[in-house]
C-alpha cells in the first residue's frame, strides 16, 4: 500500500487544481500522505525521493516535466488526463475513481520507458547534459531559413542536412513531432532512438532507427546557430560549430499501467483517429 503520494498539476488549469483537491481528500481518508504542486513553479524542494507515486494531473506536458524532475529517483508516474488528447496519460478522471482502491493498494503494472540524453560539447553551454522522455531537437533559429546540421552515427559521417531541424526521438516520442515529420511509430517499451530530419532538402529524408547501443552526433553548420530543445520545454542556444552528442540515457521513466501492453496499437489508432476527427471538425 502507498504511504506517500505527490501530485503535479499545471497551475493555470482550474479543473486540474480542483481535481488535485479531490484526490487529496481521498488519500487523506485512507491514511496516505498527499501533497500537490504546480509543475511549473519552483519545485526544487519537493521531496520526490520520498514518494511512492507521482500523479500527474493534466496532459502530456505535465507528464514530460515530471519525468525530467524525477531523475534519478525512478518514482512511478500515473498520468490523469484532464480532457485533451493525451498519449502519456493512462487514465481519465472517471477511470481514476473506478480504480482508486487499486491505486491505493499499488495493484498495477510498471512499464519502463527509455529516455534520450544529450550533451553539448562546445560553446557557452559546453558540458550541459539534458534528458528527455520524448525527444531532443536541434532546430533553426531564424524563421524561414533552414539550419545546416551534420550527422555522425557511431563516429561515421552520415550526411550534411539542409533542413528545418533534426529530431532524436525515443520510442515514446516516436508518436510526437517525429511522427509529424514522417518518422516511424515504435512500440514504447523498445530501446531504440529514431533520427528524423525535418523538411530535409537534397539529403536523406527518411528516418534512421538506431541500435540500442548507438550514439548520434549532431554538429551545427549554420553561422547563425540553432536551438536545442528538450521535450519541447527547455531550450539551449547553440552556435555554429557546436556539437551535441546523443544516446540512450542511463535514466528511465516508469509508468503505472492498468491496461494490457498489447493494447498500445489499438489505443494509438483510436487516439490518432480522434485527433484527425477533431481537426476535421474544427475545419468544417
Structure description:
- By secondary structure, the protein is α+β, with helices and mostly antiparallel strands.
- The chain folds into two domains: 4-108 and 258-283, 3-Layer(aba) Sandwich (Rossmann fold), CATH 3.40.50.10330; 115-250, Tumour Suppressor Smad4 (Sandwich).
- Helices cover 21% and strands 37% of the residues.
- It is built from six helices and 17 strands.
- It has helices spanning 14-29, 60-69, 93-98, 100-104, 177-180, 264-283, and strands spanning 4-9, 33-38, 53-58, 77-81, 91-92, 109-120, 129-132, 135-140, 147-153, 156-163, 165-169, 194-198, 208-209, 215-220, 226-230, 234-238, 243-257.
- It has a six-stranded antiparallel sheet, covered by helices on one side. Strands 13-12-11-8-15-16 form a six-stranded antiparallel sheet, with no helix packed on it. A five-stranded parallel sheet has the order 2-1-3-4-5, sandwiched between helices.
- The model has no long low-confidence stretch (mean pLDDT 92).
Strand-helix topology:
Blueprint (H helix, E strand, L loop, with lengths): L3 E6 L4 H16 L3 E6 L14 E6 L1 H10 L7 E5 L9 E2 H6 L1 H5 L4 E12 L8 E4 L2 E6 L6 E7 L2 E8 L1 E5 L7 H4 L13 E5 L9 E2 L5 E6 L5 E5 L3 E5 L4 E15 L6 H20 L1
Parallel strand pairs: 1-2, 1-3, 3-4, 4-5
Antiparallel strand pairs: 6-7, 6-17, 8-11, 8-15, 9-10, 9-14, 11-12, 12-13, 14-17, 15-16
Keywords:
284 residues; Tumour Suppressor Smad4; 2 domains; six-stranded antiparallel beta sheet; 37% strand; elongated
Amino acid at each position: 500500500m502507498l504511504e506517500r503520494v505527490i501530485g503535479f498539476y499545471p497551475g493555470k488549469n482550474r479543473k486540474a487544481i480542483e481535481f488535485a483537491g479531490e484526490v487529496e481528500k481521498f488519500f487523506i481518508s485512507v491514511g496516505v500522505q498527499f501533497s500537490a504542486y504546480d509543475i511549473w513553479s519552483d519545485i526544487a524542494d519537493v521531496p520526490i525521493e520520498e514518494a511512492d507515486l507521482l500523479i500527474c494531473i493534466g496532459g502530456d506536458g505535465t507528464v514530460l516535466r515530471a519525468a525530467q524532475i524525477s531523475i534519478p529517483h525512478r518514482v512511478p508516474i500515473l498520468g490523469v488526463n484532464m480532457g485533451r488528447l493525451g498519449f502519456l496519460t493512462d487514465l481519465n478522471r472517471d477511470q481514476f475513481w473506478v480504480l482508486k482502491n487499486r491505486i491505493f493498494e499499488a495493484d498495477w503494472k510498471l512499464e519502463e520507458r527509455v529516455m534520450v540524453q544529450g550533451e553539448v560539447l562546445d560553446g557557452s553551454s559546453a558540458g550541459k547534459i539534458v534528458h528527455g522522455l520524448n525527444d531532443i531537437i536541434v532546430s533553426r533559429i531564424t524563421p524561414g531559413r533552414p539550419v545546416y546540421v551534420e550527422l555522425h552515427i557511431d563516429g561515421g559521417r552520415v550526411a550534411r542536412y539542409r533542413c528545418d531541424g533534426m529530431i532524436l526521438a525515443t520510442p515514446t516520442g516516436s508518436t510526437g513531432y517525429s511522427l509529424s515529420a514522417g518518422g516511424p511509430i515504435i512500440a514504447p517499451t523498445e530501446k531504440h532512438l529514431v533520427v528524423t530530419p525535418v523538411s530535409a532538402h537534397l539529403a536523406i529524408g527518411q528516418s534512421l532507427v538506431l541500435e540500442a547501443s548507438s550514439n548520434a552526433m549532431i554538429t551545427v553548420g549554420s553561422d547563425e546557430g540553432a536551438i536545442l530543445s528538450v521535450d519541447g520545454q527547455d531550450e539551449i542556444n547553440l552556435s555554429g560549430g557546436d556539437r551535441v552528442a546523443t544516446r540512450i540515457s542511463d535514466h528511465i521513466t516508469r509508468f503505472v499501467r492498468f491496461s494490457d501492453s498489447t493494447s498500445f496499437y489499438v489505443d494509438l489508432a483510436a487516439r490518432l483517429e480522434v485527433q484527425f476527427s477533431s481537426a476535421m471538425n474544427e475545419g468544417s
